[in-house]
Write a structure and sequence with these properties.
By secondary structure, the protein is an alpha/beta fold. The chain has a domain at about 1-50 and about 155-220 and about 365-400: FAD/NAD(P)-binding domain, CATH 3.50.50. The protein has helices at about 20-30, 70-85, 105-120, 130-135, 155-170, 210-215, 290-300, 300-310, 310-325, 325-335, 385-395; strands at about 1-5, 10-15, 35-40, 55-60, 90-95, 95-100, 125-130, 145-150, 150-155, 175, 180-185, 190-195, 195-200, 200-205, 225-235, 245-250, 260-265, 270-275, 275-280, 345-355, 365-370, 375-380, 400. The strands form five sheets. Strands 6, 7, 8, 15, 16, 17, 18, 19 and 20 form a nine-stranded mixed beta sheet that branches. It has a six-stranded mixed beta sheet with strand order 10-3-2-14-22-21. A three-stranded antiparallel beta sheet has the order 4-9-5. The termini are close together.
Length: about 400
């Protein structure tokens, strides 16, 4: 679709002020400074959900299928993110990470990751034997490992603040504490919120955990966002010396999450986690926080039931580990045997918005849907924060504005 300039600036709305929404707004204004842009956000601040609750890792792109949107946008977004941080004085640290095999049966998966990394253009990857691991992480116990020097850490909330500052410098409007309830196609597009109706020419739905709810308003979709909570512990100060930077296990190919790992944080400290358990609501960050209508919707969704049947053993173990600090510690001891239960204190939790199709498949790649002058971001899990500026660039170029 092409929007021609008829002497009036085009009005464009971005729903959702997480990092993907902010990056999209920023890229739109970079390319088209003449537009009238508005951000609509149901919370009273930016980055209140996935962006503000993630582990702060700058992903290198080693995990993603070459040629996928994840791989391409992660690599491009990685370079753009570092450039943006340099230009806007946002601190980050490219500290590197280890991916560690602790069992013989993980060797083939480790080799697959190494090959993916090379195909995705990663620099400096290094295969390590057991005796070489100590030079990078002296307290790690492993049989083999990959050193990934391009991985880093950043505070994504600070990145989001810098993006907002850039957006507001263009006189963009931002509507906090305003929830988008419906989108209607008319001559323009109507966004019905809990406070008013906005009429605009183009809408970007970057609503994260609720993006599918808005997408359903304008088209048929065959997926639903299912929330998975990831819980963290923090290492006590006196045990932070056990971790130099980032330490990851080889991911289980039968389970679509990366496994509990150690992450040095940009603000200081070391976090351990996350696990991956079904959340009892899309924003249920605490174990016993229930949103019963949303939970009913999840438990009666055919796609989720099929995923649960496929992964029930892994899911049951993740749930057990959520309640058992001993089991959580045991998983961490696979990487660092010295870790003890009393070295860990409970930290925060995040929620991953994972799209699952009706047929019971987890949507692995980024998913973008277009409906005339509405763009829906249907699935944007990790590495969306790393890739955010590349995603924003991609989204802002889907419709020509002149």
């Amino acid at each position: 679709m092409h929007f021609s300039n008829q002497n009036t600036p085009k009005r464009i709305a971005v729903i959702g002020a997480g990092i993907v929404g902010l990056a999209t707004a920023y890229k739109l204004l970079q390319k088209h400074p003449e537009i009238k842009l508005m951000l609509i956000e149901k919370e009273n601040d930016i980055a209140m959900h996935q962006t503000g609750h993630n582990s702060g890792v700058i992903h290198s792109g080693i995990y993603y299928q070459p040629g996928s949107l994840k791989a391409e946008n992660c690599r491009k977004g990685y370079a753009e993110l570092l450039r943006f941080c340099d230009e806007n004085k946002v601190q980050y640290n490219i500290c590197g990470k280890l991916i560690v095999a602790t069992k013989n049966e993980e060797f083939s998966m480790l080799n697959d990751l190494y090959d993916k990394g090379l195909r995705n253009g990663l620099q400096g990857l290094k295969k390590l034997e057991a005796e070489e691991i100590e030079a990078y992480e002296p307290h790690v116990s492993g049989l083999k490992a990959i050193w990934v020097p391009e991985t880093g850490i950043v505070d994504y909330y600070m990145v989001a603040r810098s993006l907002l500052k850039k957006i507001l410098s263009h006189d963009a409007e931002i509507f906090f504490k305003e929830k988008a309830l419906d989108i209607k196609q008319t001559k323009q597009v109507e966004i019905i919120t809990d406070k008013q109706i906005h009429q605009v020419d183009l809408v970007y739905n970057c609503a994260g955990l609720y993006s599918d709810k808005l997408a359903k308003k304008t088209q048929k979709i065959d997926y639903k966002i299912i929330p998975f909570r990831g819980e963290y512990y923090r290492l006590k100060k006196e045990k932070e010396y056990l971790v130099n930077n980032l330490i990851y296990p080889v991911p289980n190919p039968e389970f679509p999450f990366l496994g509990v790992h150690f992450t040095r944080m940009m603000k200081g400290g070391v976090e351990a986690g996350p696990n991956a358990v079904l959340a009892f609501g899309r924003e249920s960050y605490r174990k016993m926080q229930f949103n019963f209508p949303e939970l009913f919707e999840i438990l009666t969704y055919p796609g989720f039931l099929k995923v649960a049947a496929k992964y029930w053993r892994d899911g049951a173990y993740e749930m057990y580990r959520s309640w058992s600090k001993k089991a959580f510690t045991k998983a961490l001891q696979n990487l660092i045997p010295e870790i003890q239960e009393n070295d860990l204190t409970p930290s925060g939790a995040g929620i991953r918005a994972q799209a699952i199709s009706k047929s019971g498949n987890l949507v692995d790649d980024f998913l973008v849907l277009r409906d005339q002058n509405i763009i829906h971001v249907g699935n944007a899990p990790s590495p969306a924060a790393t890739a955010s500026l590349a995603i924003g660039d991609y989204l802002s170029g889907l419709i020509e504005i002149s």
